[in-house]
Amino acid sequence: MIHTRERLAVFIGDVLHRQNTCRVFSHVLFSCWPVPPEKLPEEIASFAVVHGWEVRVHEPAAYGVVADFQRAQTKKNSEGAED
């Protein structure tokens, strides 16, 4: 089981190398972020940005809190260069 953010980052990176998304379930999220539930989305969003990912934190029926990670989409600035 994954208990640290460092190990979680390695896991997500490995999964995103092979596929477009990686879903992480609540038991892992709360293990890596022992924070009140209302702070969890903000903490996970910061983690995702640091690693170059986008994340959607939500609560689909019967799963509890989940985080769906994907590689961040590069954005072009007004001159056509990538930011």
What features would you describe in this structure?
A 3-stranded antiparallel β-sheet has the order 1-3-2. 14% of the residues are buried. The longest helix has 14 residues, at 5-18. The protein has helices at residues 5-18, 26-32, 40-50, and strands spanning 21-25, 53-58, 66-71. The chain starts with a helix and ends in a 12-residue tail after the last strand. The mean pLDDT is 89. The radius of gyration is 14 Å and the shape is globular. The protein is α+β, with helices and mostly antiparallel strands and 83 residues long. Helix content is 39%, strand content 20%.
Quickly describe the structure.
The protein has 83 residues and is of the alpha+beta class. 39% of the residues lie in helices and 20% in strands.
One letter per element, helices H and strands E, the order comes to HEHHEE
- Weakly predicted, low-confidence segments: none
Q: What does the oligomeric state look like here?
A: single chain
Average predicted confidence as pLDDT = 89
Going across the biggest sheet, name each strand in turn.
1-3-2
Judged by helices, strands and strand pairing, the structural class is alpha+beta
User: How many distinct helices?
Assistant: 3
The coarse silhouette is: globular
Helicity range: 25-40%
Distance between the termini: 36 Å
Give the biggest beta sheet: 3 strands, antiparallel
The proportion of residues in beta strands is: 15-25%
Task: Output the radius of gyration.
Answer: 14 Å
Beta-strand segment tally:
3
